[in-house]
Amino acid sequence: MSHALPVTPLDTLTAALRRALPVLPVIAVIALLGLPIAPSGEGGANIADAVSGLVVLCCAVHLLRTRRRPLSATAAVVLGLPVVGISVAAAGAADVGAGITGLTRYLQVFVLVPAAVLLLVRDRRDLRLLAWSFVALALWQGAVGVHQYVTGTGASYQGEDVRAVGTFGPTDVMGMATVVAFGVVCAVALALGAAEPRRRTIAVLCALVLLGPLALSFSRGAWIATAVACGAQLVLAGVRRAVKVVAVLVATGTILVGGLGVGSSMLQERLTSITQVADAPDQSVTDRYTMWAAATGMWREHPLTGVGLKGFPDYRDSHASLALSSGSDIAGAGAAYHKQALLSPHNMYLLVLSEQGLVGLLALAGSWLALLVGALRGLVRSRRPAQGAGNSANTGPDTNTGSGSGSGTDCALVACGLLVWQLVDFVYADIGGPSTVLTGVVFGVVGWWALMDPSATPAAREAVPAAAVRKEAAAR
User: Taking residues 29-41, what's their average pLDDT?
Assistant: First the structure.
């Protein structure tokens, strides 16, 4: 008579790590963004960017070992569409070296890293693991940011070193705001779609905690994008629940702002400035409007293919008015005071339009629109099993994919929320800085849900059990 050996915590941990092995390189990219960035850094490549290259390599090796078909025709078209405009703009760049640098960056963020993430994620449990990784990184960066505000060691804001920037430093003031915002969006999605009350409670607490550091980032663009993304998630999850959650958030926001002391006046002034972009804009808004006008002027002169990748700084002064300042003031968080040149319009759509023309903008925007449509269709699919309960032919995508409990609504809300946040934030920001690699991971997460979810088609649902049978036969 045989006796089964007891399962130890080490065995459980080993099994979990073995199962998560394909997505561990992606988690490593997210985790490495928690490391400090040198104060003198100018937004160039960092260790997370280097590891993202290893993620692409790991994906290639994984495909060779498993002999999988890399992408469906639809996925290949959607992810490969931006290559058209990027390649044309790189060929038309005035500086060959700058064109190659820009080509590498764009391919990394919008093609290679998203494709690698899309292929390494196998099921919804992997996607949920990445979502919780976003939340964990946000909690760490948020804790660093709150400490900076409390101790007066943050980036300079209105003459005081109180702006929360996390480990990204004053040269990338949007870095912590972006990371924390991603964490809020993921936590809200997990709270709205989680099947287990314990996980739902943890996600709610994480979302509420992260509102503090998001406020202390003083990033108006991140505030607006987060409000729009979370509002969209609430509406997609159900109107009744949306009303209840909004009431809780309003009460929590009132408590947070009211309890910040001196910070409350800064926050109120920052919030008020959002509505003063036309009547009495501050210098940062004036600079942004001036650069937007300059980008539009470049496009008018080169409507189809733009001025070439990395060409905006060279054409800026000839198209900008005298209202443009000499640069942004950078100080605090370990950096000495200096001026940071304004080398982009801080609007992704206008940056692409000016450097890549209509060809590039239509290619990128077309890819993003296809992802949005696919993500919304996936949300509709995730709700069908619940409506067809008791039907043996419709047991739910998680049953077929082995992706854990739940209908997949949380995964749908993660994908939709992250994409909406990114598309709204692109109105106020563009790629650049250490946190940019996360944009590629986000598009990969969204791409998997929109294009590769095994529950998307009946044929795919049938392929999953067939693959399991072949694997079991090979093991025998």
Answer: 80
Q: What is the pLDDT of residue 271?
A: 61
CB of 348 closer than 8 Å to CB of 391:
no
pLDDT tens digits along 100-136: 999 999 999 999 999 999 999 988 999 999 999 999 9
Query: SS3 string of the chain?
Result: CCCCCCCCHHHHHHHHHHHCHHHHHHHHHHHHCCCCCCCCCCCCCCHHHHHHHHHHHHHHHHHHHHCCCCCCHHHHHHHHHHHHHHHHHHHCCCCHHHHHHHHHHHHHHHHHHHHHHHHHCCCHHHHHHHHHHHHHHHHHHHHHHHHHHHHCCCEEECCEEEECCHHHCHHHHHHHHHHHHHHHHHHHHHHHHCCCHHHHHHHHHHHHHHHHHHHHCCCHHHHHHHHHHHHHHHHHHCHHHHHHHHHHHHHHHHHHHHCCCHHHHHHHHHHHHHCCCCCCCCHHHHHHHHHHHHHHHHHHHCCCCCCCCCCHHHHHHHHCCCCCCCCEEEEECCEEEEEECCCCCCCHHHHHHHHHHHHHHHHHHHHHHHHHHHHHHHHHHHHHHHHCCCCCCCCCHHHHHCCCCCCCHHHHHHHHHHHHHHHHHCCCCCCCCCCHHHHHHHHHHHHHHHHHCCCCCHHHHHHHHHHHHHHHHHHC
Residue type, 88: V
The span from the CA of 233 to the CA of 418, in Å, is 10
Tell me which long-range contacts 193-202 makes (C-beta under 8 A, separation of at least 24): 193/237, 193/406, 193/407, 193/408, 193/409, 193/410, 193/411, 193/412, 193/413, 194/406, 194/410, 195/405, 195/406, 195/407, 196/405
Give me the mean pLDDT over the 291-319 stretch. 91
- As beta bridge partners, residue 204 has none
pLDDT of residue 186: 97
What global pTM score does this model have? 0.86
Give dist(CA 460, CA 451) in Å, integer.
12
Percent of the residues in the chain that have a pLDDT greater than 70, as a whole number: 76
Give 145's contacts (C-beta < 8 A, 6+ positions apart).
Answer: 154, 164, 165, 166, 176, 180, 213, 216, 217
φ, ψ for residue 324, nearest 5 deg: -70, 130
- Tens digits of per-residue pLDDT, 80-106? 999 999 999 999 888 888 889 999 999
Among 333, 281, 348, residue whose Cα is nearest residue 149: 333
The CA distance from 351 to 59, in Å, is: 30
